[in-house]
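Example with several molecule types.
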Amino acid sequence: MNLPDKISFKIRIFLLLVFISGCSFVSYYDAISFKNLTDLKGEMMVAFEDFSQNGAEGEQDLELLEHFKVETAKAMEYEAGKNLNDNTTAQFKTIYALVSEVVERFKNDGDKLSASYCEAKWLNLEEAFRIAIETERNKIQN
Amino acid sequence: MAADIVALLKSLLNESAELVSKEAAALFEEIKSDGSEFALRLADRTKKFISMLAEEKITKDEFEELMGDQIELARAQANKLQSDAKVSAQKIIDGVKDLTLNKITALLA
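Resulting C-alpha cells for the full complex:
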C-alpha cells in the first residue's frame, strides 16, 4: 500500500465512522441489571450450598425455588423492555430456563431433589450468572 | 486557516486509526482469553458430571439435562462475545465523536 492509498484508506474509514456516528449498537451499562444479577446469584448460591449438602425437599424448598423462578422472570422482562439489549435478554432466558428445569424436576421427582443433582446444577447456574454479569460489566458506563 | 484545517484533519485521521487498532486489539485479546477460560470450565464440568454418573450420584436423566445445559451456556457465551464486539464498536464511534469535537473546538478557540 503506497502513501496515497494509505491516506485514502484512512479517509474512507474516517468517513465511515462519521457516517455511523449517530448509531448505537448496544445498551449502556445498567446498575439495576447488575444488581438484579448479583442479588439473584447471591440468593441462589446460599440456597444451593444448602441443597448441595442436604438435597431439597418439601413445600418450603419448593416455595424458595418458585421464588427464584419468579424473580428471574421479573429481571428477564426488565431486560426485554430495553432497546439494543438482545444479547443480555438471551442470557436471562438461559438463566430462566435453567431455574425452570430445577422446579420441573422437583415436581416430577416426588417433590425432592438429590444433593448431588443440586451440586451439579449449581455449577451450570453459576456459569450462566458469570457470563451475564461479565457481559453487563463490560458495557460502557454513562 | 486552510493549513490549520488540513493539519486538523490529518491528526484526526491518525488518531482515529490509532483508536480503531487499539480497540480491535483489546477485543481480540478479550475474545481469545475469554474463549479458552470458558472451554476449560466446560471441560471441568463435563468431567465432573461424567464421574458423578459413573458413581451413580446422578441419574442418566439428570446427566442428560446437565449436559444439555452446556449448549445453552455456549449460546450465552456467544451472546457475551457479540455484546463485547458491539461495545468495542460503540467505544470507537464515541471516541471519534469526542476527538472530532475536541479538534474543532481547539481550532475555533
